[in-house]
Design a protein that fits this description.
281 residues
Length: 281
């Protein structure tokens, strides 16, 4: 359980105990007692005004999506519902190859939120990670990303590019209640998922366009046991690139050509689920 979930549970428990205590105090039998000695009255401070709930910036409205959502047939479970809907959207073959259907709503909202943070755990991704090793050229600590490294990402980028954005957005609208519930369950009660989706898309669209090839270096790993996966120890040599979020680093690693395709798809999806236009960098 993360800190936000703990805080929500703690507040709930304290509220229940407080209201329960007030209820039992009011039911206690009155006992006659001598009046206490007068005490100097101290003006009570006005209760602090709770901060207002953040206004929803990008409300989901079905009229914002022109295409009809793929039909969602009645199913015995949420997983079966997602499997039917996603299979209709991308096809059964692509679904089996690229998508993790199990617990899809939670995977989706967790990954969207994490892409704008320092780390996005692959085990939570709604899509299968690409295979192969991160390819570099050069010797010593200073190296560069190999030109052929982008080929690893071609099948996944091609799959993403092939998805009909309007139908995907329509399905997102249709299934939004499940996604919103999952977002609140992972630790964001009262927060509006679509606002986060739009904010993360805007964040990813701000990914810089550095000149190729990207310079990287090996990170220091202390200890006598050599790393079993040395290709995972690379960092960008440029500190400004290394400090980027997990999602922006992914867009850097896929290569400039794939990055252009993915940014175009992100911008298209944004236009379908956001009310306000994107701000120019």
């Amino acid at each position: 359980m993360n800190k936000l979930s703990i805080a929500a549970v703690t507040v709930t428990v304290l509220t229940v105990l407080g209201l329960g205590g007030l209820y039992w105090w009011q039911r206690m039998p009155r006992v006659s007692m001598a009046p206490p000695a007068p005490v100097a009255q101290v003006p009570a401070e006005a209760p602090a005004t709770p901060p207002p709930e953040p206004a929803i910036k990008h409300p989901i409205e079905e009229s914002a999506v022109a295409a009809s959502a793929p039909a969602v047939q009645p199913a015995t479970s949420a997983q079966a519902m997602w499997r039917a809907a996603l299979g209709d959207l991308v096809g059964e073959k692509a679904l089996l190859r690229f998508v993790h259907v199990d617990d899809f709503a939670r995977r989706f909202v967790a990954t969207v939120d994490n892409l704008a943070r320092a780390h996005a755990a692959p085990r939570l991704w709604p899509v299968a990670p690409v295979g192969g090793r991160f390819s570099v050229v050069g010797d010593g600590e200073q190296r560069v990303v190999a030109a052929d490294n982008a080929a690893r990402y071609a099948p996944l980028v091609g799959f993403i590019a092939s998805v009909d954005a309007r139908r995907a957005a329509a399905l997102y609208v249709r299934m939004y209640p499940q996604l919103q519930a999952a977002y609140e369950e992972i630790g964001f009660p009262g927060r509006y998922l679509n606002d986060r989706v739009v904010a993360v898309i805007d964040h990813l669209l701000q990914t810089p366009e550095p000149a190729d090839p990207l310079r990287i270096h090996l990170t220091e790993v202390k200890g006598d046991v050599p790393s079993a996966t040395p290709w995972l120890r690379y960092e960008f040599a440029d500190p400004s690139l290394q400090s980027l979020s997990s999602g922006q680093k992914i867009l850097l690693r896929v290569g400039s050509a794939h990055r252009k395709v993915l940014k175009a798809k992100l911008a298209e999806l944004r236009s379908l689920v956001a009310r306000a236009p994107a701000k120019r960098p």
